[in-house]
Amino acid sequence: MSKVNNIEYNLWLENDHNTRGHTQWYYFKVVYKDIPLAPEKKTHKVKFNVLNLAKTSSLYQEGMKVAIWSKRRFEQDGTGWFRGGEEISYTQNDIPRYTESGNAHQKKGESAFLLNNNGAGEGVETYFTFSFKYEFEPNTNDEVWFAHAIPYTYSQMQNSVKALVDDKRNRNCLKVNLLCQSLARNPVPLLTITENVGTFLDYYEDLRLQHHLPNHILKKGYRRGYMNARKLMKQCGQANPKVQPLLEAAMREDLKQFVEANEDQLLAVSPHFKGF
User: Fold this and answer.
1) Beta strands 82-84 and 66-70, pairing class
2) What is the Cα–Cα distance from 160 to 221, expressed in whole angstroms?
3) Is the whole model's pTM more than 0.85, yes or no?
4) pLDDT-above-70 percentage for the chain
5) What's residue 111's pLDDT?
């Protein structure tokens, strides 16, 4: 950040992790202290310029406003995040947009694909400036947060998932597994929502079936039987109500015959096949 004058500030965003050019998200706080000045020299409207955005177009050009949270307003009347800001603009500037090349600058663990495929501002030689003004409340001190979008933290996501899991009403229709890890090595949950979820094979169980079942079952029976059942299940959801019960019965019989014929091998892979 650099100060232009008392009522204007320039900001420079760091690139997103594992990229050389993603600069779209901002989230910063301003501590505003009201100082005694002559009324004719005093203004509470401050301008902020974000200088190094790379996208060639922005929703700010279509009327989108800044996400704002004011500590004073929250404590006064409970106001949370809201959209605001005045004199919003998004225009190209003359600041050169340099992108590093080669592997010399690549950090351990970074994705070469992401580093070499920025996905934002490809071929753009100079950056774009996003500017807006915000008028602080006169005669008060405040702490104000500004963001591109209303923040939704990883902790909030975890709490939301935990609340769903703890709700007894979801026990027969919700399963939570690990999908992968994020670039920051945080676990990314995978939510499966379906009827009788306890008998539903999740992604990893499906992989284990394909890798651990004997080859003759996998090649001759599993793939054909499993895919036939899935096809019938899809047809059930799209069929005429009069035909749907027949397709559903065929699907269940197809699965039942296959599971009964290979029960020992299936149970060795997943206990969910017990009584399937």
Assistant:
1) antiparallel
2) 41
3) no
4) 60
5) 46
